[in-house]
Amino acid sequence: MKVVTTAEDGSNATYSITVDANGDTTVSTSDSSVVTNVDNTDGSESLTVANSTTTSELDSALTAPENGSYEIQDGNGDAVSTDDTAVTESMKVVTTAEDGSNATYSITVSSS
After folding, report:
1. Whole-prediction pTM value?
2. Digit-coded pLDDT (tens) for 33-57
3. pLDDT of residue 1
4. CA atoms in the 13 A half-sphere facing the CB of 96
5. Following CA atoms 106, 64, 31, 72 in sequence, which dihedral angle do they give, to the nearest 10 degrees?
6. Which residues are bridge partners to 70 per DSSP?
């Protein structure tokens, strides 16, 4: 973004404004009984959820990146409704950072 100022004598000055967008794509959990493990390793992001976790419970347990968002998706990349549907390992969580960058978290459902 540029701002142009005009002085009283009619001369102009142009200033560029740069906003550094946050590139954080990490997700965290507020409920470790639902999301038992979060791996934010770049390139191999993953979540482990408790057996019988629903999409609604997963949605409530996740915290989006600062100024970012996340979406629970099915294996085709379509948004999953957050209801009483059981979370499966074909689902994933896709985060979007403030700067538009993304990370895809695979999901492992704990067997116990």
Report:
1. 0.80
2. 999 999 999 889 999 999 999 999 9
3. 72
4. 5
5. -40
6. 95
